[in-house]
Amino acid sequence: MAKGLVIALWSPKGGVGKTLLSVAIALRLSERQRTAIIDGNADNPDLVTLLQSSSLPNIGTWPGRVAPEEVEDHLVRWTSRLFVLPGPTRFIDEAVLSGEAMEAAVRSLSEAGLHVVVDLSAGLRDSTLVALDLADWVLLPVTPDLLALTPLRRVARELDFLKLPAGKFRVVVNREAEGQEISPADIRELSPFPVLGAVPSSRQTAQAINRGDLQAALAASTPVGKAVAAVLRGIVETEPSPQPAASAFGAGLLARLWPIAGREGA
After folding, report:
1. Coil, strand, or helix at residue 64?
2. Is residue 1 part of a domain?
């Protein structure tokens, strides 16, 4: 069975529309193949609220490595081919989103043939480091404002420290609109990473979300849906960067960074 693609969305800057973009990407991927979206944001796990889905099962109930034929039993089905793995249900339970739990979920789902989209928090907790390490592609959403390039340059400076290959990082300009401080062309010219494309700010999308109709807001026929499909063509039809040989379960990036990352929640 061919492994599914793993796409992590991460930004050290909050408020860039990362969660909604994660859902839009997962919806487009699920049009052709089973896809799971993981809420990897322990600080503010809001996928359940956005999707109006059940909060159980979730990352806290994930039982470790799961056989391919059993993975759907540990997910929330949102559409016929899109599944959700919610984050912790309470803030006091955020410790359940450990590096080990993230690795078990991502590997199990990918090996079962599902594409995996991981919506990550801004901080570099253990689970975020593991997801970044396992991802075939890391998408960095930015908004077109004067500070857009600051987090990108910061990430570029830290990649050697984090021991992550720059070749799998791509930028997505989110909430593009006329009259903004900096254009996608400016970001493309100055970004330390390739820019896949731009996703527009859409009043139609905002209205549909406010009505509670997220699928309509992100449908393939909408401006956002079309833009996300174009963004995905830049990675789905491109071979992922070569990754090092898979390490023993529970090792990987955390083992290499243990003196830096420390224990979960430190």
Report:
1. coil
2. no
